[in-house]
Amino acid sequence: FCICCMQGMVPYLPELIPHLIQCLCDKKALVRSIACWTLSRYAHWVVSQPPDSYLKPLMTELLKRILDGNKRVQEAACSAFATLEEEACTELVPYLSFILDTLVFAFGKYQHKNLLILYDAIGTLADSVGHHLNQSEYIQKLMPPLIQKWNELKDEDKDLFPLLECLSSVATALQSGFLPYCEPVYQRCVTLVQKTLAQAMMYNQQPDQYEAPDKDFMIVALDLLSGLAEGLGGHVEQLVARSNIMTLLFQCMQDTMPEVRQSSFALLGDLTKACFPHVKPCIVEFMPILGHNLNPEFISVCNNATWAIGEISMQMGAEMQPYVGLVLNNLVEIINRPNTPKTLLENTAITIGRLGYVCPQEVAPVLQQFIRPWCTSLRNIRDNEEKDSAFRGICVMIGVNPGGVVQDFIFFCDAVASWVSPKDDLRDMFYKILHGFKDQVGEENWQQFSEQFPPLLKERLSACYGV
């Protein structure tokens, strides 16, 4: 469904949408289900209008269709509602109670296939409204039916996959609100990982006697553990302390299947943020594996390994020094590769910046090899904590090796100007570097140099830093 057709439709939508909403009540099931789908295509427009005009009536009718007597209509309505949730995000907060009542009621009504779509609608709701879901009233509605399903399903049942994915979103959204449920959920995830690893080992030793395991069990369990670590933060510490998750993670990180490694590195990064004292003793063994996985052939594996290295650097501080050599060359190579996907470039730049922040003496000597792609890949991301730590790293490295940035200084200026509101001490770092460079080359040379700046860049640097 192309954007240009959408533009042509816009003038007719104020009349068309109410008509389509009426079609949701049509006596023919086929009309009701196709109306669900058609309306979902216009969710973006609906959400851009005042909520009482279209969003509220559409949501009200879609929720009724989720409880339709016809299975095909249930399915279409549930999928359409998930699309609407993604577009509406926090616009749905005022209606949460009403939405949850419907979705929970559907639990008792739905048969097997549609239950899977219902899990998706609940997970998407949690992703869309985030911490707004963390109210005892909502938790008491939502959690009992989810936990009931969780208890009904056996460890070997593939219906666990969508439920685990759904719970991962819910745990991340509820944060501390998920605490009462975390213990059994955590234990079962660890068990699923352990069982899958054991089965894989037996299969590898005697393939004629054992079946190959379905590793998806392990992948979704690792992802849910990530959701718990992200949602519970420091509260996950006691669960980690009482389990062998670090040993299991060591095995998962070396699995032959890329998706298993991808989820392992994501969990490693989340555990590093949540409870580093449990991760630290394993760093000696983990770092060579992380370095080995900085292979852009497997984009997502490489991306998560890169991110985890950055998080570990921030926790290790100067103690990261013995490990810089294991990863730095690969990171510099990735940031200089043509056609590297945008997210991988950004993550690589952030991790190089973080490594340089904690170990400037080790990273600064190769500054000239990465400064240009580093600046161009981070100029487009919004101000945030990760960008903050990366830019602090670059400033410290420029302090150690100012010559490394001279040839590409215009790119550094451009990257600095991309900040909307840096913290005061970071702004001071920028100020000192810009003025240091200007004083070094002299007024006349600086004038010539800044003539190359696009007008907007010149304006911003002059306004924010007085150069």
Automatic annotation (TrEMBL):
GO cellular component: cytoplasm; nuclear lumen
Importin subunit beta-1/Transportin-1-like TPR repeats domain sequence ranges: 59-199, 243-344
Membrane-spanning intervals of the chain: none
GO BP terms in the entry: protein import into nucleus
InterPro entries: ARM-like (IPR011989), ARM-type_fold (IPR016024), IMB1_TNPO1-like_TPR (IPR058584), Importin_beta (IPR040122)
Subcellular location(s) per record: Cytoplasm; Nucleus
UniProt signal peptide: none
Chief location bin: cytoplasm
Keywords (A to Z) from UniProt: Cytoplasm, Nucleus, Protein transport, Repeat, Transport
Superkingdom, taxonomy of origin: Eukaryota
Record-stated family: Belongs to the importin beta family. Importin beta-2 subfamily.
Protein name: Transportin-1
Organism encoding this protein: Denticeps clupeoides
